[in-house]
Amino acid sequence: MNSKRILGIFTLITVLILPMSAIANGPPSFVELAKKCGPSVVFISTVNTVQQDNSMQNKFHAPGQKNPFEDFFKQFEDRFKGNNPKQRRKQGGLGTGFIISADGYIVTNNHVVASAEEIKVKLQNADREYPAKLIGLDKETDLALLKIDAGKKLPFLSFANSEKAKVGEWVLAIGNPFGLGHTVTKGIISAKGRIIGAGPFDNFIQTDASINPGNSGGPLIDMNGKVIGINTMILANGQGIGFAIPSNMAENVISQLKTNNKVSRGWLGVTIQDADANTAKALGLSSKTGALVSSVNPGDPADKGGMKVGDVILEVGGAKIDDTNDLLRTIAAILPGKKIDVQVWRKGQTKNLIITLGERNGKTTVSAEKFAPKAKEETIDQLGLVVRKVDREVEAKALGLEKTEGLLVIEVQQGTPADEAAIAVGDVILEANQHQVNTLPELRKIINTEGKSRGLVMLLIKRQGRNIFRTIELAPKK
Question: 56: which of 16, 73, 90, 399 fits an S-S bond (Cβ 3.0–4.6 Å)?
Answer without folding.
Answer: 73
